Amino acid sequence: MLVLGIETSCDETSAALVADGRTVLSNIIANQLELHRKYGGVVPEIAARRHTELIGYVINEALDAGGKSLCDVEAVAVTAKQGLVGSLLVGAAAAKTLSYVLRVPLVGVHHIEGHIFANLLSNPEITLPHVCLTVSGGHTLLVYVRDYCQYELLGGTVDDAAGEAFDKIAKFLDLGFPGGPVIDRLAAQGDRKAFAFPRPLLKAKTFYFSFSGLKTSIINAFKGQLASGETLPMEDIAASFQEAVVDVLVTKTLRAARQREVSAISVTGGVSANRRLREVFAEAGNREGIKVYFPNLSLCTDNAAMIAAAGHARMMLGQVDDLSLDVIPNVPLEVQHAG
Amino acid sequence: MLVLGIDTSGYANAIGVADGERVLADFAFQTRNESLAKIMLNVDSMLKDAGLGLEDIEGFGVGLGPGSWTGIRIGVTVGKMLAYSTGKPVKGISTMEVLAYQARDCRSLICPIIDAGAGDTIYAAFYRSGNNAVHQVGDYYVGDFSGLAEVIAEPVVLVAAGVSKYQSAIEQLLESNIVAAARESIPGGAMVALRAAARLQNGEPDDTLSLAPLYLKESTARAFVNKYSKRALEAQQR
Fold first, then answer.
1. What is the mean pLDDT of residues A107-128?
2. What is the ipTM of this complex?
3. CATH number of the structural domain B2-95+187-218
4. Residue A217 φ then ψ, to 5°
5. Cβ of B232 and A40 within 8 Å?
């Protein structure tokens, strides 16, 4: 079954063709970073306007690149839950129109469910159940994936998302937006033990995260020096900060995996591209006999292939939407129990 | 030429079908934040009620705004994807022109007003009627109502959805003969279809994939910057 996926939940306009929920024929991602960089974050109205300009081109290119035409499309999947409302609306309006004209099923997908499927797409051998950590600029979420489309929420962030902490530290150090890649790069040349930054909630029994205090402690530690124009040890700050975030993410995810007695962990979202996170997760997984999976780099950040894959899985379970589909900007991942 | 018109720029979903200069169907209702949820259902039921199929439609018209930014994005996206997926042409029509066209029987200057949804700000424009069309005079106006009164040089007919919002100001202008009449009118889908049909029959379609709304105002990025670092703001100004 050929599914056209559409994702416009934040600042990436994306469309993809995925066959049978497994084979990515095309995955076109139009990044808007340049439009938002000077503001140090995503401006919702700018994002929504850009989606409107790009959506047709991106869908057209996804069909071209996949070597297919519209009449080959057998279903349309679109991110309908979780994101910026103005952005979500554009993708959903396009998806609904195509579903209507082509007379094919329409499936609304939760953005986080898409990220979970990004890993299943990259690593079809992942066993179920497993524990999935989604880490991005907007999310930090630990989910027990019982089966396809059956989730149990284990924990998440109580304040900033992990990627948001990267962005805010980068902004404080004037490193630009987004913060993830530049901190990853600087950290590679720094001393991870130069500063002992706090590891919030590391020892707490719950699977909740907090990154706001870590961010504040770094800002408080260096704002005096920054104001007086002193040169800061950027590499060491980046490395020590990144180590604190990675330490918390890895420790808690492994603890969740042990508690749930699963033999596999999947890590998804934009922050899953972080090299140190991948390294530490791999080491810890080896030590404990737990296999840790990461998506291909092209599927780490927001993309429509993962939405198409998730939509395909929902459809196989008979869960389709009709033309009354609406978007919901803020809603938890639907938790379903096996019964 | 059978054209389907859509306008979702205001508080209503408006859709209609015109065959050349003849209206076959016209349908509009307030949406209460359900514009997206209902739009395709509206299109489907209207076509069925009119005894038409999507395959009968030879082109599409879309109200480009100005108006609700979210609203015009829904209409424009639906319009361009209808055109793209059916391979038929699309034409974007200014919602101002649609409102003015709905008062085309007036011989005086026609002044459509659209609520900008931000405090007292309104969008306005001036049109003159003739040859079964309306022609814009001058540029669009963005500002408050009293500012608009100052730029009116001759008696006009005001056309607005929610005209009662400006009732007290209008009363004064009626007294001073600046306003000849004030009409309640929401931009109609069939009127969008009529105007689009005229253009499409003239061989003036828009480029489907690049079709974009008429915002008339910059995004709120500046307000967003102020929430963040001073440095970012300075960088933007450089």
1. 95
2. 0.92
3. 3.30.420.40
4. -65, -35
5. yes
